[in-house]
Amino acid sequence: MSQSPTHHTVLLIDAENISHRHAPQILRIAKSIGSLELRKAYGDFSRSHLQSWREPMRRHDIRPHSNYRYSTEKNSADQALIGDAQFILGTGHFHAFLIASADSDFTGLAHRIAAAGAVPYGIGSARVNTTYRQALKRYFEIPHIPTIKQFREAIFDCQRRDPTSHNVDAPVESLRSTMFHLNRVSTVARDYGLSDFAALLESAGFEVSSDRRPAIVRLRVPPPL
């Protein structure tokens, strides 16, 4: 869907909603839309989980807009992105806006971009609000299907956050829900050609008791794959 080079594009990244690992994919999509003239990322980059964005921002010439979070009730990064987008829209120079986020809070912004005569695009995970998706000209889904080994390491990372979860039995569905909300890796078994999440855990080397109801997984260090 390549556009004319005069189709000036701005890329606005919600770094708190999308992984730094997707930076190359995001840039590739942004450049396919038109002439990418401005790229910015928003987030509290003083927080440990956003440190990994620093290198991709440097490598891809993405301007960081750091917003310190003083409250858990309001997302200052979202507000900064929306404010910047409205200012940039007012210049009349950009014809397309690519919002790198699956956050439906940007639905109103997408409508304002379209009303001003520019074209709103979105890019992010497949789990996105339908209303937000429909407010965009197009929403590009980023597949995040890591290897089984990466999936297993993500489980370990989850365990490190909660030491009490080591060497215990846990409901499979509870673990799936936890991993889903962390949004670290895909929890969709069919992405790996498997029937369900329990089968995915077994493929990653975890011991699952499927004969119990609910199914239980033993959270212990698995044997090497």
Folded structure, characterized:
The chain folds into two domains: 8-141, 5'-nuclease (Rossmann fold); 148-219, no CATH class. The protein has a six-stranded parallel sheet, sandwiched between helices. By secondary structure, the chain is an alpha/beta fold. The radius of gyration is 20 Å and the shape is elongated. The chain has helices at residues 23-33, 54-59, 76-91, 107-115, 130-135, 148-161, 172-182, 197-203; strands at 8-14, 35-43, 63-66, 96-100, 119-124, 138-141, 168-171, 207-209, 216-219. The longest helix has 16 residues, at 76-91. α4 (107-115) links the parallel β4 and β5. It starts with 7 loop residues before the first strand and ends in a 6-residue tail after the last strand. It contains eight helices and nine strands.
Summarize it.
The chain has 225 residues and is an alpha/beta fold.
What topology emerges from the helices and strands here?
Blueprint: E1 8-14, H1 23-33, E2 35-43, H2 54-59, E3 63-66, H3 76-91, E4 96-100, H4 107-115, E5 119-124, H5 130-135, E6 138-141, H6 148-161, E7 168-171, H7 172-182, H8 197-203, E8 207-209, E9 216-219
Parallel strand pairs: 1-2, 1-4, 2-3, 4-5, 5-6
Antiparallel strand pairs: 7-9, 8-9
Distance between the termini: 41 Å
CATH top-level class of the largest domain? Alpha Beta
- Structurally, how many domains make up the residues? 2
Structure class: alpha/beta
- SSE arrangement, N to C: EHEHEHEHEHEHEHHEE
The CATH architecture classification of the largest domain is: 3-Layer(aba) Sandwich
